[in-house]
Amino acid sequence: MHQDQPVTFANVEYRVPSIYVHPDRILRQLPRVLKSHECFDPRYRKIIYIARDPRDVAVSCYHYYIKMGWLPETCSLPDFVPRFIAPEFEINFGSWADNVMSWVSMRQHSNTFLFLRYEDMLRQPEAELARVASFLNIE
Prior knowledge:
It is a single chain. By secondary structure, the protein is mainly α. It has helices at 12-15, 24-27, 54-68, 77-85, 96-104, 118-123, 125-135, and strands at residues 47-51, 113-117. It has two domains: 1-35, no CATH class; 36-135, Rossmann fold (3-Layer(aba) Sandwich). Helices cover 42% and strands 7% of the residues.
């Protein structure tokens, strides 16, 4: 893939490898930008955590689960939301709140942890990108 190609749902794995798809020995050879939906893992030395409004997360998960065939198309969003909160679907990752709190608890380590809100990234991308660059010591 060339750098001038847009990142899409289909090719994002190439740009940002998933810890669920690639074994550790492969990940060590790739760029050190990884994505994870798991709770905090102390093995990660420098973390940029992006949190999203839980209402938007629920809607996104709803559509993703239908697309993946994990949820029948007949399931309505109002029927899905209580199951999302439960968390019926996220046995490995816990509830959205538990997952976020595992990461947010690391905020006191400000030199190794950067907390971003997805909505802020949409509203003021230049400012948020500047925060990321500063955190990574990129000028």
